[in-house]
Amino acid sequence: MDRNRIIQEINPAATRMTGWKTGQKVPYCLFCQHREVVHGEERCLLMGKNAPSYFESEMPTLHGENIPVSFSTTYLPTEDETIEHTVLMLRDISQKKQEEEMRMAKLLARQTIEAQEAERKRLAQELHDGIGQSLYSISMALGLLRQTVPESDAQLFTIASSTLADTMKEVKQLSVALRPPALDILGLKAALVSLIRQVEQHFSLKITICYNLPSSLRIPSSIELHIYRIVQEALSNAAKHAKSPVVFISLCSLSDHSGFHIIIRDKGKGFDPIHVHRHSTGLGLKHLAERTELLEGSMHIDSAPGCGTVLRFVIPFASMEETGSEKN
């Protein structure tokens, strides 16, 4: 193009990308359209003084759209070294932008989940060390006071003690739900067994688990927490929405030893996955998908109204190790 940005020559690839033709004026990119310029300054960044040899922006096309492109330039000086023509090279970076957006979305999801887990851990500790200990002290004081009151008031102390015991139990359950101590102390299998007992007691649900991961497998603690939350969320969905009397859980290695799968199957009322994906305002399935994606895994839902639900998660060993290394 010349100094007036009139196209002198253009190759077929650039024409297909932009729709431009010889003799037309190259439009300003979105950056140059909106940047502030002083009097006498060239609006086109590439035509001004100290022009960058490379930068990225979005370029309007004759097709009526803006495409993300990278610009690089070469100048063709005349014999007196004045610049008369500029060779403008464009590269479509749409895929690069999409990959970057996906990477940033994944990073944001990871940071959000990590922040949530850190806050859960803090709250669990405060419930246990703060409120839990205070309630225990009240319980001890109530027991001492009981010895000093007449029998006519004994029933009041019995009611108060029972209410306090229920409150202490609820606080403990909240603390465990926020951050299961068994996971840090005993590992994933024991934590899942403890979780199953809690869900069975709370929802009158029969849950069977088959845990066949190799004993030699060393799962980073951060990854164990993701797996625990996946099972926890899936069980919560089954208990609250599926109306199933039984749930089956399986954690087994894949036949090619490239990873392992988590299968959670219920015999509840089922649902239409497509309809739920489009219309549901709940975050349960969304959270399951986010955690699975953070582990570089895949999630598949097999369900239909009246036919129960099967959730299948595949977690690769290699990416699990990489994710754990990043976290650690």
TrEMBL record:
Keywords assigned by UniProt, alphabetized: ATP-binding, Coiled coil, Kinase, Nucleotide-binding, Phosphoprotein, Transferase, Two-component regulatory system
Positions of the Histidine kinase domain: 126-319
One MF term in the entry's GO annotations: ATP binding
Assigned EC number: 2.7.13.3
Residues forming coiled coils: 90-126
Gene3D superfamilies: 1.20.5.1930, Histidine kinase-like ATPase, C-terminal domain, PAS domain
GO cellular component: membrane
Annotated catalysed reactions: ATP + protein L-histidine = ADP + protein N-phospho-L-histidine
Record's protein name: histidine kinase
Taxonomic placement: Bacteria, Bacillati, Bacillota, Bacilli, Bacillales
